[in-house]
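Q: What changes when NG1 is included in the input?
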Amino acid sequence: MSELIPPLRTIYGEEATSQAQRYAEALSAFASTYGAGEVLIFRAPGRVNLIGEHTDYNHGYVLPVALDRDTLLLARPRSDATVRLSNMEAEFSPRAFTIGPDIPPDPPGDWGNYARGAAQALARQLRRADRRPPLRGLDGLVVGGPPHGVPRGAGLSSSSVLTVVVALALAHVNGWQPDGVTLARFCSEAEWYVGTRGGIMDQFIALLARRGHALFLDCRPDTAGRYRMEHVPLPQGYHLLIADSGVRHGNVRGHYNRRVAACRAGVALLRARFPAITHLRDVQEVPWAELEPFLPEEVTVGELAERGIELEDVPGLTPDTRLRVRARCRHVWTENRRVQAAVAALRAGQVATLGRLLNEAHASARDDYEISCPELEVLVQAAQEADGVAGARLTGAGWGGCIVALVRDDAVPAFEAHVARRYQAETGRTPAIFACRSGPGAGLVIAVTLSEED
Ligand code: NG1
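A: The predicted holo structure follows.
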């Protein structure tokens, strides 16, 4: 176990010793499933988004921070194209499939699909690059449960992290060594396999994070396909606290895709005035008053079709699906401005301004994008009224999950007590509150050889 400590210290700092225990337990579980021999350990972190919600798929701005909570994949390369995966969490039973360009999916919502998406994308990527197989699979063990894993379905990117860690491992065993940006783009497309038309934020922060920094990412590539990004130091003297409502909405994907559709409808309608645009980002510099007349309060998918507008490639829409186009686009337009202002405030050390922007972002997410829920409202109000809090907002896709609050170091214990008490009193639930210790991006942690005795 002592050989684990140095590489773990560079990732987890003072938590390295307790992490070593976790890694050692994972290695012994791997040995009992797959036997002695070489093991590669990969990790990918979850993230909290400080500000910039639902802007990524509109080619806008985001400001996420990687957590020190992560998913591990212990992997042993195979000589054939089979991928066998087991999971330390017993509720996820083992999965197996063969890597190839057309991998049949597990049932919708199944955990195996995140790995299948990564494997299929890799096979296609290598075929495009004219690197003919034989493809190599792996025997793997996924480690993602509490207390060190990324809380599931909480808007902290637990699912993307699984795609990222599997993609990292499969790329490694197949000798594909792309740079972080290429791999992040690749992973975001791989995740389309599961049926969300998501953006690129989660994969970029998982792969490109730097400890102690948020990642300001412009989600619109330039004409050469490059992304503009900047690692911005987090404010001194403050903690980022995350409070998990414990609420998990059953149909986040359906709601999410409807928001994507509303934004796409907005783009299609704005083309009457700005014919060349492809994303809402393209009208970011146009005053809102000039955009509003083109954006109806509400329109159905059927009415759009009558006007010749088809929202292709968004699962789950019917002609009766109603889209609140104006409010959705207004959120995206104002949120992009808030992210830019938040980065300026961070650079200038203006924590009060940053906090105000977080509060405004929450109001916009609640009223214009309608992604909040009663429990998140209780949490945000409790957080915003606590002493020493610069600002607080819901984070992630929404409809449950977590809030993030910027809390002065000395006010952390009182914050935790106040928020927990109010949340418990008003909802009967106990929130999980924890500090975001920002960690580095995903990668290969260590290669270990397990002997028969391990
Ligand atoms: P979460 O909250 O982790 O499900 C989702 C999207 C992000 C982004 C946010 C909203 C995926 C994989 N993740 O994240 O890209 O759009 O919602 O800002 O689609």
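Observations recorded in class: The chain has a mean pLDDT of 95.
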